[in-house]
Write a structure and sequence with these properties.
With 426 residues, the chain is mostly helical. It has helices at residues 6-9, 13-24, 26-48, 55-59, 61-94, 98-102, 108-138, 145-172, 176-207, 214-243, 252-275, 281-304, 312-318, 335-359, 367-400, 407-425. The protein is flat.
Length: 426
């Protein structure tokens, strides 16, 4: 019997298993055949009803056909594939095979990554199957190929994010009742994403991007795709923490992902304020900074409410040399360290834009005049929202650091963190 190539030994075993099960499953075959049939019918209907003698209708033929095919692709990417990824993780618990995966030598990160990559391969199969129909739209009139390409990339990135969200929802469900509730929330997120991207596609395809130049459009779409990428980092860390052993430092990846997201939140408003001319840079930057505050609260909620209890395995990891370096205590379990890391992320998110607004090459010359303009443009509102953020998060983080806290207090601390973004927005 011949041995498989060595290159296959390095492939994630979970990825190989999930791809085989997905391709052989009835759900994938049905959705795949249905997408091809609907795409063929849509293309035939659009081409059959095309009046070549009407210049206005002929000029919109490519956009209409692409938008109809884009809706089919969005349904496959945002509904079919994420639901399949959610079912794949949920079946591991229902069939009681999840413990076998954990004791097979595979790390929780490999398990989550394998299931997520399987969803990515499935999205790629749908895209390859629909490429001939998309190529047909390029031969017609009125379609902007750059807009079509960016919409497709945005749909793929959001589909990958929803797939990982479905895996996370299935991993967090410890009981069937919790699994049903999380599945309903997950399906609601998929439906909302489908409607939102459909409206975005309709506006971009039929009415244009609305930006002054192509570079502004590419920057805005690039930031949206980058936001989905950093969301993937955080969701992956939280999914790994959900299935990790209680004695391990499972939220380590969540903390690193929070730092990476804070860097992006610090750079993104600066790019938008300098590239996209929606008013003055200060008037553009401060609303984005205020919007980044509740995002940072939600990203750091798991770490700020984490207990400080460290078991034998976690202590053994901490005793290694790499945990004795300066600053590594910020990535150890505990709400206190999570709150300090949250404060550092607030500085990282706000410092680049503040420094740019105080040193921008145009506007008032004196520092006092610059501060006056910044206060009038929204600095006061940002500082107020920042104070509310610290007030809402300090008590839950302090309470999480106390191992002997009352049960009612531990249940109430999450209420403070969940409602804090609402107070920040108000």
């Amino acid at each position: 019997m011949s041995r498989p190539p060595r290159s296959l030994d390095r492939v994630n075993p979970v990825l190989v298993k999930e791809v085989r099960q997905a391709v052989r499953g009835r759900s994938f075959r049905g959705s795949f055949i249905l997408s091809l049939a609907v795409s063929a019918i849509v293309s035939a209907v659009v081409l059959a009803n095309l009046d070549v003698n009407d210049p206005s209708e002929l000029a919109q033929s490519g956009t209409r056909m692409f938008f109809a095919l884009h809706l089919v692709f969005l349904f496959c990417t945002l509904i079919a594939v994420p639901v399949q990824a959610h079912r794949s993780m949920a079946m591991e618990r229902d069939e009681r095979t999840f413990d076998a995966l954990l004791i097979s030598g595979l790390s929780p990160a490999q398990i989550v990554l394998g299931k997520w990559l399987s969803a990515g391969i499935t999205i790629g199969l749908f895209l390859v199957a629909m490429l001939p129909f998309f190529a047909t739209t390029a031969t017609l009139y009125g379609l902007d190929l750059l807009v079509a390409l960016m919409l497709t990339l945005l749909g793929i990135s959001i589909g990958l994010t929803l797939s990982l969200l479905g895996i996370l929802a299935a991993a967090m469900a410890k009981t069937k009742a919790a699994g049903s509730i999380l599945m309903m929330v997950f399906l609601g997120a998929c439906g909302f994403a489908l409607m939102a991207l459909a409206n975005v596609g309709n506006a971009l395809v039929f009415f244009g991007s609305g930006f002054g130049s192509t570079s502004e459009f590419l920057v805005a779409m690039g930031l949206m795709i980058a936001a989905s990428f950093f969301s993937l980092l955080w969701l992956h860390g939280l999914a790994v923490a959900s299935i990790s052993h209680p004695e391990e430092n499972g939220f380590l990846r969540v903390r690193w992902a929070g730092v990476a997201c804070s860097i992006f939140l610090g750079i993104a408003p600066l790019i938008m304020a300098t590239v996209v001319p929606f008013g003055t840079p200060a008037r553009m930057a401060f609303p984005l900074l205020v919007a980044s505050l509740p995002i940072l609260v939600l990203l750091n909620m798991p770490t700020m409410t984490e207990s400080t209890g460290m078991k034998v395995r976690c202590r053994y990891q901490i005793e290694s040399g790499r945990w004795r370096r300066f600053g590594t205590w910020l990535f150890l379990p505990g709400g206190g360290s999570g709150y300090v890391l949250f404060l550092i992320q607030l500085v990282i998110a706000g410092a680049p834009t503040m420094i740019y607004l105080l040193t921008m090459p145009y506007g008032p010359v004196g520092l006092a005049d610059r501060l006056t303009v910044l206060v009038e443009e929204g600095l006061g509102a940002y500082l107020t929202a920042l104070g509310v953020t610290l007030a809402c998060c300090s008590f839950p983080a302090f309470l999480a650091s106390r191992p002997n806290a009352k049960p009612w207090a531990r249940s109430g601390l999450r209420f403070f963190l969940v409602t804090s973004p609402l107070w920040i927005i108000l």
